[in-house]
Specification:
This protein is an alpha/beta fold. The chain contains seven helices and 13 strands. The strands form three sheets. A six-stranded mixed sheet has the order 9-8-10-11-12-13, sandwiched between helices.
């Protein structure tokens, strides 16, 4: 799996008996995203699908909306002092007429799962950046289909099987077909990789699709789903209060604690068919 995983020697203790053995870990390395040669942010990620990650990040920031908003993505050569390439610096070239990110988007610190907007300012910023309305999406799904998503997501997590240390994001059709799955140490990165893949494939907005994530549903993940035109976000764990606020305001269906046939609907329950009894 190359740089996606690394091997480390560990001391394993079972029933009080220690033994030394090699273990497989999920790789984590910093990646700097540049736009037009100008540094924008550094995110800690699992190497792989880096161009999708960069493109998806820019969708989530409202910078790009379609594949032709970019003219290219490349690794920066000579990223080290001796001229070597670390494959940890990615530069995105925007198409003529596409505005460069504003100075307010420049992040001179590591992007983590907690990075994002907050409060009323965050809601206003997403509202201003949204090009497509997910509230108008006619998606309708049944509880049986939703209940099948965690199992399908888990079954497709190949790197998780060897490390046990990666989040996953999966994009599904309204019939439950898996369109794209990405894994990463950061759940926000996994979503960016999915959205970036869709952008580069010319699939945005992602109408009629469902996004399933392996962790909790943060404000940032709801933000990314809304900006990609995804009408339904489901998570195996809890959402935050601001995530619910943004989902309700945007018309996105937000589901948490999706485990087996059990789930909590926090917003957009009208998309569940048959309609649940309140």
């Amino acid at each position: 799996m190359g740089r996606v995983t690394v091997r480390r020697r560990v001391l394993r203790i079972r029933d009080g008996v220690p033994s030394a053995r090699p273990d497989t870990l999920a790789a984590e390395e910093p990646m700097e995203i540049r736009v037009g040669g100008r540094p924008l942010t550094v995110t800690m990620r699992t190497p792989g699908d880096d161009f999708d990650l960069a493109a998806g990040f820019l969708v989530g920031e409202g910078v790009v909306h379609a594949a032709d908003d970019m003219t290219g993505i490349r690794y920066c050569a000579g990223a080290t002092a001796d001229g070597g390439n670390t494959y940890n610096v990615v530069d995105v070239a925007l198409a003529p007429g596409v505005a460069m990110p504003t100075a307010s988007l420049e992040r001179n610190f590591y992007t983590t799962s907690s990075c994002g907007l907050c409060g009323k300012a965050g809601l206003d910023a997403v509202r201003m950046a949204t090009r497509w309305s997910v509230a108008e999406d006619p998606l309708s799904v049944g509880p049986e289909l939703l209940a099948s998503l965690p199992g399908k997501l888990r079954a497709a997590q190949k790197v998780f099987d060897s490390t046990g240390g990666l989040h996953a994001a999966g994009l599904f059709t309204a019939d439950g077909e898996l369109l794209c799955l990405r894994e990463d140490v950061g759940r926000h990165n996994a979503v960016d990789k999915v959205v970036g893949h869709a952008l580069r494939s010319g699939l945005l907005p992602l109408r009629g699709t469902l996004l399933m994530v392996s962790g909790r549903a943060s404000f940032e993940l709801v933000q990314k789903a809304v900006l990609a035109g995804i009408p339904l976000l489901a998570a195996v764990s809890a959402p935050s209060s601001l995530a619910v606020d943004l989902a309700a305001e945007s018309g996105l269906t937000l589901i948490g604690f999706l485990r087996g046939t059990s789930m909590n609907l926090y917003a957009g329950a009208e998309r569940l068919q048959p309609q649940p009894v309140s």
